Amino acid sequence: MKIKTTYTPIILLLLAVIITSIVIIIAFKYFLPLVIGVLIAILIDPIVSYLEKKIDFDRGVITAVVLAAIFCLIGYISLLVIARFTFELARLINSLSDQRSNFNALLDNAYLFLLNFFAKLPEDVLAYLKANLNQILSTISGTLTNLYTFLVNKIGMVPNLFINIFVMIIFVFLFSYFLTKDKDKIINIIRNLFPERLHEKVKSVQLELVFSFFRLIKAQIILVFISTVITVLGFYILRVDYALTLGIICGLLDIMPLFGPSLIFIPWIIYLIVIGDINLAIGLLVLYIIIIGSRQVLQAKVIGQNLGIDPLLTLLSIYLGINLFGWKGLFVGPLVVVIVRALIHSGVIPPLNKPVKRV
């Protein structure tokens, strides 16, 4: 029986997209230390290989030294950032205490506003509110109790969180070490899982993924740098205290575009509205919109140019990724495109414009 294979490339492409998406999500959810270890191994492999050729020393020792240096550097920078953040936070708390009189005045104004508001309500509405007062107070009390319990539970989880982070760092270090040290053995094991006729294709996929990974990292660095510059300049224009420090923090948080800047801007804007500094609140809101807008406009173009993918396809992958996987889709979408493109370039998946064949 002859079966048309016109749609074979499309079917293979859809299967590749679905399987790749599932594998990436599972990897990030259950094997995050291994994923981070793979990324670190890819990043440091050129350094380790270069030093191995130059000084003719054992690859395992070189890998351990390079990893130790990188982890120590990251730890040192993290301590500096935490110390600076703690210092700035202490100053912010002190400045908040100076706003106590403004806050008390705000409460007085709110109380007077509520009195006037209730005085203007119709009698039937007031009667309804009085009849349901106990239920309203009970609901508010229950909400506050649940919030308190939630905060207490989260605070109680802090020690476990630090333990989990410490254990994760150890596993990341070990995965990075063995993946870098035994790179050639691991690559050969992966290739031997496939028939010999596919070895060249597997090698092509590996090279394509490594190069695409570096390009993706480069694209993210460019986007974060642009966001940081815009934020710092905006803070200086608005004459915000600690403009450079806050700008760098907001820029680095832009690694999580949907949540990062929001963690700083939204509470800050609300606080300014509460204390009555409307001009600065409006300025920060405009700056926030500019940062988010520029990120959305530039993201598809920058990632597409660095990966050699059409910006429209990049934008579509990001959009579908966000809708299917939430904020993780910002990274999953482009990764799926990169992996599928590597499979197409290596010939594992036939291109869509391949001449129709019949079996």
Gyration radius (Cα, Å) is: 27 Å
Helix content: over 70%
Number of domains: 2
Q: Hey, roughly how much beta strand do the residues contain?
A: under 5%
Derived structural class: mainly alpha
Shape: elongated
| Succession of helices and strands | HHHHHHHHHHHHHH
Oligomer: single chain
Roughly how many Å apart are the termini?
8 Å
User: What is the average per-residue confidence, as pLDDT, rounded to a whole number?
Assistant: 76
> Total helix count?
14
Characterize the structure shown.
This protein has 359 residues and is an all-alpha fold. It folds into two domains: 32-98 and 121-193, no CATH class; 199-359, no CATH class. It has helices at residues 8-30, 32-55, 59-98, 100-119, 123-131, 133-156, 158-181, 183-192, 199-237, 243-253, 260-275, 278-307, 311-325, 329-345. The longest helix has 40 residues, at 59-98.
Tags for this entry?
mainly alpha; 359 residues
Short description:
The chain is mainly alpha-helical and 359 residues long. It is built from 14 helices and no strands.
Topology:
Elements: H1 8-30, H2 32-55, H3 59-98, H4 100-119, H5 123-131, H6 133-156, H7 158-181, H8 183-192, H9 199-237, H10 243-253, H11 260-275, H12 278-307, H13 311-325, H14 329-345
